Amino acid sequence: MTSRMSTDAHAHMLEEAVTYLLGELPPDEAAALEAHLQLCTPCRAELGDLREALNLLADGVPAADPPPELKRRIMRRLRRRRPFPWPWATAAAASLVAALSFWQAAVWHARYEAQLRWPVHVTAWAMRGVPPAPGAAGSLVWVRQADSNWVQLVVAGLPRTTGKQVYQLWYILDGKPISGGTFTVGASGEATVRAAVPPEVGFQVAAVTLEPQDGDQAPKGPVVLATKE
Amino acid sequence: MRVVLGPGKIFHCALKTICARQAKNQTLTPVLRSLKMLQRTACLGGVHGGMEELTDGELLTRIAAGEVAAFEVLYDRYARLVFSLCLRLLGDRTAAEEVAQDAFLRIWRHAGDFDPLRGTARSWLLTITHRLAIDHRRQRRGYAVPGSPEVEAAAAVVTDDPGERAVAGALGQQVNRALQGLAPEQRQVLCLVYFGGFTQSEVAQLLAVPLGTVKSRVRLALVNLRRLVGEG
Question: DSSP assignment of B48-61, as one string?
């Protein structure tokens, strides 16, 4: 992570960490900062420290006991409401992509059922577009079983690649990116990629960057999609 | 987040996850986390006893899976802190009750969003409370006027009454001592921002200093506060 891009991101993070914590950063900048946080363990730690310090202030306020009715009122409301209420579904794109991806995984599963060995471990993430591709969405499904280990990435809404440009998938392992392969995107903005995962790789977070060219072992370009942390 | 599936289950489970995902307008991760939680609860036979010993983070995982009992334990643990903070920020009990209720309902609905990699559960729920209280206050307040009683009250952090108890006991007193130990210009901006709910730009206007100066003072104040509390 020595590229100019990430140095800028560090500097930006240092400058705007407090603004972000106070909820004063515009949504697109907040999303960009969050994307950087996913890739950068030191910045995450730094922000965590600032957040803990800010919340320390709550500990010093004068003590006041809430009235007992408050608890009764809240508990009554809970029983009426499910923890996941019917919402204002605006991330429909991401859902749809996730649905398609699951569908395809299920179809593959049916096709290859005879060859599969159980158990199969499936982990899935929705990926969100961040500037410079705020309208993009994606889903990542990771399938592991006795003799195979692969991911399927479905993306939509990405700007088309030009010249030598490629999109590159990264698994983030202890803050370190490991390449998951590259792909290009045409005018449709969509792509479906299936790639083998090296057996030693286990990851919690993944991101897609737009790289100036293929073959780099470290990300040089901006993050365009990231699993939400 | 890992779900072990049998041959017939994969499609059913995928559909269930998608439905939950669409219903929740969120990433899949918390949903899968909840599924795992449900499995674990099933293994334990749904025993609710001993929840008082669970960590805040463990409680939130259970709350995300819809366990009311876990929520009740978390409420009992934090109601006083949440309410005291609301009262300090809003100044009247009716508004404080209203915002504390909103905060707990939000915690109930969004428990699946809590991510231990990003900070402690305590910090997460205090951030939610603080944001809601400040939003409430901003709606009520309108624009900040320099020298108004509201601005003065926000800047005068620590109560003059030394007999008044801090909500977090010894830690709270330590925090208040540390606040007193900050350079006055750092204490001022931090209190205007945190207790007054003023944005950094508003503070810059109120104090007639550049925005960059306000930002760096808030940051320094936080770094120093943490250090001073650490030193005890």
Answer: -TTGGGS-HHHHHH
Instruction: Give, as one character, the DSSP assignment of residue A161.
Output: P
Mutate to test the interface with A, among B9, B28, B99 (most CBs of A within 10 A): B28
- Work out the minimum CA distance from B104 to partner chain A, whole angstroms: 8
CA atoms within 13 A of residue A68's CA, in its CB half-sphere: 0
Contact A56 B4 (CB under 8 A): no
Cα–Cα distances (Å) from A224 to A26, A72, A159, B78, in that order, read 18, 46, 10, 38
Nearest to B128 by CA among B151, B155, B100, B164: B100
CA distance B28 to chain A (A): 5
Q: What does the DSSP assignment read for B92-161?
A: SHHHHHHHHHHHHHHHHHHGGG--GGGS-HHHHHHHHHHHHHHHHHHHHH-S--TT-HHHHHHH--S-S-
Mark out the alpha helices in chain A (DSSP H runs): 4-21, 27-39, 41-59, 68-80, 92-111
The answer, as to whether pTM is greater than 0.90, is no
To test the contact with chain A by mutation, choose from B4, B16, B18 the residue with the greatest count of A C-beta atoms within 10 A, namely B18
CA distance A204 to A174: 9
Contact B18 A95 (CB under 8 A): yes
SS (H, E, C) A23-87: CCCCHHHHHHHHHHHHHCHHHHHHHHHHHHHHHHHHHCCECCCCCHHHHHHHHHHHHHCCCCCCC
User: What residues of chain A lie within 8 A of the CB of B112, using their CB?
Assistant: 83-84
pLDDT, averaged per 10 consecutive residues of chain B (232 residues), comes to 41 43 44 45 47 92 92 96 95 94 95 87 95 88 61 56 70 90 94 91 92 95 94 77
Q: How many angstroms away from the CA of B62 is the closest CA of chain A?
A: 11
Task: Name the residue among B62, B60, B33, B57 with its Cα closest to residue B47.
Answer: B62
How does pLDDT run across A177-218, given as a tens digit for each residue?
888 889 999 888 888 888 888 777 777 788 999 998 887 788
List the 28-47 stretch of A: residues with Cβ below 8 A of B: 37, 44, 47
| ipTM of model over 0.90 | no
